[in-house]
Request: fold
Amino acid sequence: MPTGKTMEAALDELRQAISSLENAVDMRVERQREQGEIEGEVRRVHADRSRLAQELDQAEFRANRLEEVNREVSRRLVTAMETIRAVLDR
Reply:
């Protein structure tokens, strides 16, 4: 019955090979899933970065506008104070 043992050994090797192949396929599927998740996260980070950059630009614009308005108000206050002093000095 050496043929039976040889056949049994061949079947065992085939089972091991199939098991190894299944493990390799499972690992590959898991890596692809993780890669997809990573790519999704990278897309979200880029979208957040773009949104934050836009918000920063808007905030800088508002800050610059407020600074301009502040200078104008200051200029007007100085003019008003000078006018009041001139009236009081008469």
